[in-house]
């Protein structure tokens, strides 16, 4: 079976001596094989499945780092910038300058992570769209080194993670959130769960109104993955203290970056962002 496709082309033609342009319609008939159509659909479905799998892995990482960091810091958020913004403002109203400045630094570092990862994606790893995990792993490694240095030794971690190491964790989470980009905008939020829940609710409404389960299932998987990561981070945070949690997060990020790199290697190279 073959499918005929009619394509209308507009071709400009200048009339000699008149200086007036006229337009002629040129009809081109192309023949497309059903095999090609099926192949295109298969590639699209495979790409979508791969994105769901990758986003789930990265959401687990984000939930893990966020929960474990919260336990072993002074209650700082590294994935929840809404909360940090509120703490920054409320800190000024309550006279708690330490709270205000700390939250402001984390917001600034998260934003810096987004900017740096976006620049790197445009200029350095355009063929590896999920290369942001490399920057995430690097930033978490820096946080580990800083925690060791601040503890006064090179072999013992601090029992509580200070603001400086935590700021690099926030940077790492900002970078991680640039992993999925379409047309220059984040297409899949990884750590800001409020957006995921909104999309989940809208998908459920579309399903109720006659759509399919695919309207919301991907967002449900993403939310469940983040929650699972938070549970894992809470368990690890209880079992190990301070910088050991950072080390576990850095190792998890490194393993994730290897996984995403291998997945990217099996997909078509992408053009740089425009």
TrEMBL record:
Keywords: Membrane, Transmembrane, Transmembrane helix
Residues spanning the membrane: 57-78, 98-120, 156-176
InterPro entries: DUF1275 (IPR010699)
PANTHER family: SLR0142 PROTEIN (PTHR37314), UPF0700 TRANSMEMBRANE PROTEIN YOAK (PTHR37314:SF4)
Name by which UniProt lists this protein: DUF1275 family protein
């Amino acid at each position: 079976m073959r499918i005929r496709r009619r394509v209308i082309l507009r071709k400009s033609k200048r009339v000699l001596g008149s200086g007036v342009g006229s337009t002629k319609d040129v009809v081109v008939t192309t023949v497309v094989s059903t095999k090609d159509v099926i192949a295109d659909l298969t590639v699209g479905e495979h790409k979508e499945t791969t994105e769901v799998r990758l986003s789930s892995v990265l959401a687990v990482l984000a939930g893990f780092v966020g929960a474990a960091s919260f336990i072993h810091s002074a209650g700082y958020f590294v994935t929840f910038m809404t909360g940090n913004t509120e703490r920054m403002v409320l800190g000024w109203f309550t006279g708690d300058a330490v709270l205000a400045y700390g939250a402001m630094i984390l917001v600034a570092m998260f934003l810096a992570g987004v900017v740096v990862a976006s620049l790197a994606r445009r200029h350095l790893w355009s063929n590896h769209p999920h290369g942001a995990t490399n920057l995430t792993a690097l930033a978490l490694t820096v946080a580990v080194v800083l925690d060791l240095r601040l503890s006064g030794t090179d072999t013992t971690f601090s029992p509580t993670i200070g603001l400086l190491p935590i700021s690099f964790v926030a940077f790492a989470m900002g970078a991680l959130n640039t992993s999925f980009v379409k047309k220059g905008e984040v297409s899949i939020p990884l750590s800001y769960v409020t957006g995921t829940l909104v999309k989940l609710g809208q998908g459920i409404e579309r399903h109720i109104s006659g759509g399919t389960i695919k309207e919301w299932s991907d967002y449900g998987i993403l939310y469940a993955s983040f929650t699972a990561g938070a549970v894992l981070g809470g368990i690890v945070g209880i079992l190990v203290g301070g910088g050991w949690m950072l080390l576990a997060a850095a190792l998890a990020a490194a393993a994730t970056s290897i996984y995403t790199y291998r997945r990217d290697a099996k997909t078509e190279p992408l053009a740089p962002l425009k």
